# Entry
Amino acid sequence: MGSRAGAGSSDPNAQIASKLKALYNAVEQEPIPDTFLDLLEKLDQAEQLGKAQG
# Structure
């Protein structure tokens, strides 16, 4: 009762959890796109400029 030892391919929740974990791990390993890094850099510069002026 409550044991996950028997959770296999017949358990749809286990299948979903396994696939979600695999997808998350794959996305986590992807590099950050240069355009996103550039956008973050511009945001940092804008914040620093705002602090200097304010």
